[in-house]
């Protein structure tokens, strides 16, 4: 059973369709990238995959169950979205991670030591947990949001340009962290958006390309393409 199924999905904005006829599946163990130029609707697609944004056509199912049939907290435990510019409630990074743990208590999410160990791999000390979230740089906020998402115990991570604000070393560390997270459990999968073809080749074995899926305003025949293995 696929973890995620997208069938004949279409999304339009007032003046045009961004993409139509988009269909793909993601199984446990898969690493998928979403490609496409700025404004092609990569973020809107990721948001639609977890019901934060609507489709104009088509369906998204998780575990073969349409999103509309999911109890939202259960869906959030199964699939987590890490936005490009994450937001946090007031408090410290520790508070943000504790919230994720409380949210996912039923899944037996990991204790603080888990976060400290991962922070070490990202070149950060335990002191990072004491930082106020409103003082984080863009890259630090992405790190905190990634850990928060991982810690809530999902099977599918939706990563929206998760290294966009990070330097090359930190980018490398985040790529390895996600890869290790996937290796730890073959049922897990990740979908990345990235503008970098090199990064897509590093982090994914399959690419869904929205760049070829921007129809003329009233056209309906064009289709998003999925490239085969990289
Ligand atoms: N709620 C909305 N209503 C109308 N238009 C929207 C809405 N949200 C986004 N858009 C538009 O939809 C298009 C796709 O936006 P999106 O952020 O998904 O693109 P993207 O491919 O992720 O871009 P980037 O690579 O720059 O992050 C853009 O033209 C954006 O202005």
From TrEMBL:
Residues 4-230 form the ABC transporter domain. Signal peptide: none annotated. Keywords: ATP-binding, Nucleotide-binding. PROSITE patterns: ABC_TRANSPORTER_2. SUPFAM superfamilies: P-loop containing nucleoside triphosphate hydrolases. GO terms for molecular function: ATP binding; ATP hydrolysis activity. It comes from the Bacteria. This is ABC transporter domain-containing protein. Pfam families: ABC_tran. It comes from Rubricoccus marinus. Gene3D superfamilies: P-loop containing nucleotide triphosphate hydrolases.
């Amino acid at each position: 059973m696929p973890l995620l199924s997208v069938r004949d999905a279409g999304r339009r904005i007032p003046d045009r369709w961004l993409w139509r006829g988009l269909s793909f599946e993601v199984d446990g163990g898969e690493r998928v990238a979403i490609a496409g130029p700025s404004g092609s609707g990569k973020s809107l697609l990721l948001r639609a995959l977890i019901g934060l944004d609507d489709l104009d056509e088509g369906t998204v199912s998780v575990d073969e169950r349409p999103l509309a049939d999911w109890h939202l907290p259960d869906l959030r435990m199964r699939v987590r979205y890490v936005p490009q510019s994450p937001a946090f409630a007031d408090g410290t990074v520790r508070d943000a991670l504790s919230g994720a743990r409380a949210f996912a208590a039923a899944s037996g999410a990991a204790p603080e030591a888990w976060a400290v160990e991962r922070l070490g791999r990202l070149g950060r000390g335990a002191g990072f947990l004491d930082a106020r979230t409103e003082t984080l740089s863009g890259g630090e906020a992405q790190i905190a949001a990634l850990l928060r998402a991982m810690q809530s115990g999902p099977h599918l991570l939706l990563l929206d340009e998760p290294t966009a604000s990070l330097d090359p070393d930190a980018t490398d560390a985040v790529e390895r962290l996600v890869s290790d997270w996937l290796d730890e459990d073959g049922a897990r999968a990740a979908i990345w958006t990235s503008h970098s073809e090199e990064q897509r080749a590093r982090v994914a074995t399959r690419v869904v390309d929205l760049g070829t899926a921007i129809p003329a305003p009233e056209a309906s025949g064009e289709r998003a393409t999925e490239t085969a293995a990289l």
